[in-house]
Amino acid sequence: MVDLDHLAITVTGRAELFPEAARLLEAQGQAAPSLDGLSLIMEEPLRVGVSDADSVLGRGAIGSAGEFSVPDVPVRDIHMSLAASFEHEGFVRSSTVVFDTVFTRTRPRTDIIGARVWALPTSFHDALTRAVGESWIRAHTQDRARTLREAGFILGRVVDASGAPVAGARVVLDRGDLAHRVYYPAPDFLGSTQEATSATGLFVYVHSGEAAETFSLSILGSRDYLARSAGATAGTGLVLTLYPGSIPR
Fold first, then answer.
1. Would strands 153-158 and 237-242 be described as parallel, antiparallel, or unpaired?
2. Which one, of 35, 27, 32, 73, lies nearest residue 54 by Cα?
3. pLDDT at residue 159 in the model
4. What's the number of CA atoms in the CB half-sphere (13 Å) around residue 31?
């Protein structure tokens, strides 16, 4: 038996630029920013959204090859999910979910290894904002925000069993009143639709710029993609990878 109320785990993995961000920088002839030495925070996104003073569950640093290890993360404080977050100059404040209690139906019982954490350069955020459109962001936030960062957003990537992006996937939320907030950026990031993912497999959820919201999301017409918990709060982005089955890709 594992006493989850007194268990502390270590989270290890690798931090990298978000794949589409790296491709966009390369296409524009821009150098990729380094993550070496940047601090990393393990936190509960839901508690961050409600300004809980105890939302931080651990701290670490990113190594020269992107590796990180954060020890002594208390399992008892993980309610919906555990995320790795960082906020540094040149990057948008973002959180990558590394453990989802809705997805697994339990809290972690062992160390988390091989976690993938994605960094979002400011220039990539700006490209996403242009793809969605300032006018739509202002409409969704009742003029409280003009950028995705100000509004709060979710950036998702739908992949197949091999980890390759999936085109033609449509993301559905368990809250129908929020369905109109999902956008699918074009591969060149010059626009977006609300139909389905492009060849990049990307989707963006635009938050209201107000209090935190939580919901679950899944892929329309597919039983292979289990429902995932998600949430959004102003000033930050949540990064999710939707993959079939239960093994991260």
1. parallel
2. 73
3. 95
4. 3
Confidence of residue 219 (pLDDT cuts 50, 70, 90): very high
How far, in Å, CA of 120 to CA of 95, rounded?
10
Cα torsion for 111, 58, 211, 149, to the nearest 10°? -100
pLDDT tens-digit map of 105-130: 778 889 999 999 999 999 999 999 99
Cα 126 to Cα 89: distance, rounded to the nearest angstrom: 14
The bridge status of strand 171-173 relative to strand 153-158 is unpaired
Helices 19-27 and 122-132: crossing angle, nearest 10°? Answer: 90
Which tens digits make up the pLDDT trace of 164-178? Answer: 999 999 999 999 899
The span from the CA of 206 to the CA of 150, in Å, is 10
Residues 139, 33 contacting (CB under 8 angstroms): no
Are the CB atoms for 120 and 91 separated by under 8 Å?
yes
Side-chain half-sphere exposure of 43, counting CA atoms within 13 A: 22
DSSP run (H or E) holding 135: helix 134-140
- In angstroms, rounded to a whole number, what is the distance separating the alpha carbons of residues 82 and 95? 9
Nearest CA-CA partner of 178 in 151, 146, 213: 213
Across the chain, what does the average pLDDT equal? 90
Helix (H, G, I), strand (E, B) or coil at 62: coil
Q: Token digits for 100? A: 């989802």
Q: What is the pLDDT of residue 106?
A: 79
CA distances from 12 to 113, 117, 217 (A): 5, 10, 26
* Tokens 């292979």 found at: 224
Q: How far apart are the first and last CA of the chain?
A: 29
